[in-house]
Write a structure and sequence with these properties.
The chain is built from 14 helices and two strands, in the order ααααααααββαααααα. It has about 325 residues and is mainly alpha-helical. A two-stranded antiparallel sheet has the order 1-2.
Length: about 325
């Protein structure tokens, strides 16, 4: 048996009858008293349900009744979600709206006011993966400057190591796992080569160019590293000589963000993102950037670099052979 909900003044809705408006108010009171949801969440749920009821009243051409809401069909909910999507509402907001509608439906069912079966038939919208924002070019270069760490109470060889790792992330667009997975034999000395073979996702290898100044930073690090670096072992090692943890580089970037006045979005992966974005902004070929990043499809690179369809069309017109 459900607990009684305190009496209160019902919400007034032009799009719904008084009975449904009363149940909406009782539901919000239940969420506040029993579920202890935050005021912001309650406000968002109330707004989402109100928007849905307004849409349904327009969709059906009449006020929404309690009986009518319980008889909702999946097509009605999909139409509402499509309307919200057309207003440029993101996936997270749509997911929250659906969660609120389902919560209201469960409340009505517990109270014996009908079962809104269509709500359980709707799949939650997909949420696109958010990508790190690119770091400005000047700031990205400063991450690879060992002098930025001069005030830290750490051994100079560790400063040199971290600078070399971050130079690789930005200079060659590597994933942090790819950089830390490099063996000493994989990295040429300055002047003795300009490419490295990287093992990426799915154990796939690719050839990546590496700048001479990046190789010089790596050579500076290996020259002062107190641990013996075997050709078949990792080139980047931790304080005790074992494999370097990605978390160490993440923490280093967290410290440098404060020094450089950068937001939390400035992460090791953001350096890779910046590599792609800055190449593209300087006229780099999209297909070549795809190969450098190790992406399986061009569409992944398009999303990754944040370019629009107009830029894609421009690249296509420039590169496509004409008969």
């Amino acid at each position: 048996m459900t607990k009684p909900v305190p009496s209160f003044q019902p919400i007034e809705l032009d799009c719904a009858d008084a009975t449904l408006a009363l149940e909406m108010t009782r539901w919000l009171s239940h969420l506040r008293a029993e579920r202890r949801l935050s005021p912001k969440t309650l406000e968002a749920y109330a707004r989402d349900l109100r928007q849905c009821l307004i849409f349904l009243s327009q969709h059906w051409g009449r006020k929404v009744t309690l009986k009518g809401f319980a008889a909702l069909e999946a097509s009605d909910i999909r139409a509402f979600m499509a309307m919200r999507r057309a207003d440029d509402i993101g996936g997270r907001s749509l997911m929250r709206a659906l969660a609120g509608l389902r919560s209201f439906g469960r409340f009505l069912e517990r109270e014996g006011k009908g079962k809104v079966g269509a709500l359980s038939a709707i799949r939650a919208p997909k949420i696109g993966k958010s990508l790190p924002k690119p770091i400005q070019m000047a700031a990205a270069k400063r991450f690879a400057d060992a002098d930025e760490r001069a005030g830290e109470d750490r051994d100079p060889w560790i400063w040199a190591r971290d600078a070399a790792v971050m130079a690789l992330l930005y200079g060659s667009g590597l994933r942090i796992s790819e950089a830390l997975g490099l063996k000493k034999r994989d990295v040429p000395l300055p002047g003795e080569g300009d490419v490295i073979i990287v093992t990426g996702k799915g154990n796939k290898t690719r050839m990546v160019p590496v700048l001479q100044n990046v190789l010089a930073l790596i050579a500076d690090y290996t020259a002062v590293c107190p641990h013996q670096l075997n050709p078949e072992g990792p080139i980047f090692v931790g304080a005790r000589g074992g494999p370097l943890s990605p978390r160490i580089i993440q923490l280093t970037m967290e410290r440098l963000r404060g020094v450089l006045g950068l937001p939390d979005s400035a992460t090791p992966h953001a350096l890779r993102h910046s590599f792609a974005t800055h190449l593209l902004s300087r006229g780099g070929d999209l297909r070549a950037i795809q190969e450098l990043l190790g992406h399986a499809s061009l569409s992944t690179t398009q999303i990754y670099t944040g370019i629009d369809s107009e830029r894609l069309l421009e690249v296509y017109k420039t590169a496509h052979p004409r008969g």
